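Cross-posting from the modeling subforum.

Setting up a comparison between two proteins and wanted a second pair of eyes on the formatting. Protein 1 (sequence, then structure tokens):
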Amino acid sequence: GAAQTPTYRRCAVTGNPQQQLSSRSSIYPLDTEVQGSIQFAVNYIQKLEEFQVFVVNCRGLAIAETKKNLSDPYVKCYLAPDKTRLGKKKTTVKKRTLNPTYNEVLKFKIPLEELKKQTLIVSVWHNDLFGRNSFLGDVDLNLSEWDFKNAEINEYKLKAKVIISVHIQCKLVSSIGKGISTTEAGELLIWVKDCKDLPQVRRVIINPFVKCTVLPDTSRKSQQKTRVVKRTANPLFNHTMVYDGFQSEDLRQACVEITVWDRDRLHNHFIGGVRLGPGTGKSYGVDVAWMDSTTTEVNLWNKMLHSNGEWVEDVLPLRMLVMAKGL
């Protein structure tokens, strides 16, 4: 007969639920002070090769709409690192509540051997009809260590996301050491100092390095790299990249793409990046996806252009990037 969905048994929190959580962090803005908890259970149906997450409720969520003193929360689940292939699953949105009850089952078709290589990310979001949804907290469950005979409902404290970042200084100088005028060529210097709180992308301590490219040039000549700093989430690089022959007009059309990678023997894993540029969406009159700098990235770029050859600096949050062709 058809496989039966199990009856989930409610269970009090025993010990420290944080011990079951991995230390993975993601790249999200901290919209709201994270608070509260979520109750859910996980189960694997062997006959169906189906992983089920039974989302019960949330309690004491943060207020996303401060004017109305409410949130419209929903729960989103995905499996990392295979997020794209397996997709994201979501509950319904519960309106005007900080204590939503869902009692919904979210399902993933996946063989058990594959599942044991994944981390389950359960996140809570406020649904904003007119703007960007607000992050209300999450829980990460490392499934390589999970006992799949345990189908009990557990309560987990929601965690804030860690903002992962890169510390950069940059300046633009002429060959005589001052800021460059509209006519003369000059040097662009990018000093990558360090990164903070980089996430594990392969379940092991990472070996980070930074790559720098001045777009639209994706040739090897344009690409420069720092050394690999082994086994750390907080690497200190102190590496300066130098690009010469720049005119002021070039800089209105260019964008410095700085990306952070985890060095692996087989292939490198992308962690996140920033793009310093004017953020106009165009380069030499052509629409380009990579001219997408955020406000903070544009601000640092503009500060550099007007700094008359002096160093300017900022700590910028890393973000996911749609990579330019040829990188």
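Protein 2 (same layout):
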Amino acid sequence: MVNRILDRLTAKLKRFFEDIIADSQIPTSEPAYKLPKLAGPVHNLGGGGPDVDDAIQWMINQVRGGSNSNTKVNVLVIRAAGNDDYNQLIYSMRGVKYVETLIIRNRQEANRTDIFDKVRNAGVIFFAGGDQCEYIRHWKNTKLEVAIKSVYDQGGAIGGTSAGAMIQSEYVYDSCACEDSIETHEALDDPYGNITFTYNFFQWKYLRGTIIDTHFDERKRMGRIMVFIARQIQDGVSAKALGIAISEQTSLLVDKYGIAKVTGKGSAYFVLGDHPPEICEKGTPLTYYDYKIWRVPRGDTFDLNKLPSRGYYLRSVKRGKFDSDPY
């Protein structure tokens, strides 16, 4: 009898002290959304103009583990100006838990903790078109940049179109030295005239050593990407550089293995400069012999791990003029 009373008393005292200990502990809050395991990283690089909707869906499917996966992910559209027109389109896609457009206009907003938290909880990030100079000035070396890189490191998708694609190469034509982007004839006439670059922004694994251009066929930009490539070599940035040039209404899909596939209506061009330019000087038209160019039509792929040893054609620029049609 006495033993039973002691046992009950001991049990009550134990619960009493457990309650005191629990009340004295600082409560821990669980995050509202737990980031699912992501199956990337992957990229969707758009050439501008009307978006390739299937390319955005591809990004979502890739990071959630396939089109038949039950996993859903958060999608963020990031831009420096504009509207939230992407939201309705993306929310209707398979595998989307949540979508929001963040308009981040300055460095103060890019360093906000609430924006940092939203971005790092995304599975897919898509940069809308706009002005790459604004993107770089407002976002580089901020908490936003750190959060975006964390999404990539966790296997997320990083996409973008037009300026939103151009900021993702290792070498970025930033368009900060002039009000309007440089035209091909201007660049070929003077490779140093109002042409500036940004480095050490995003350095994605399969886009190292590259410089991206968009609106390619429509705005006849082969000459200017040739100048961009020559400048990297002439300025001592790299011994070689690969231009990735994407037409409008076209996307380049880069999977987690570094295989790039062209989808949409147009083609992508891969332009390699692998030796020093013959003449690349301020105020003097460019001369560069034997760029290697791979033209990749929709549906075809290109291995960014190891450039193909065949399938390219050669084009040269002499005193600012093409030796023949480069397209």
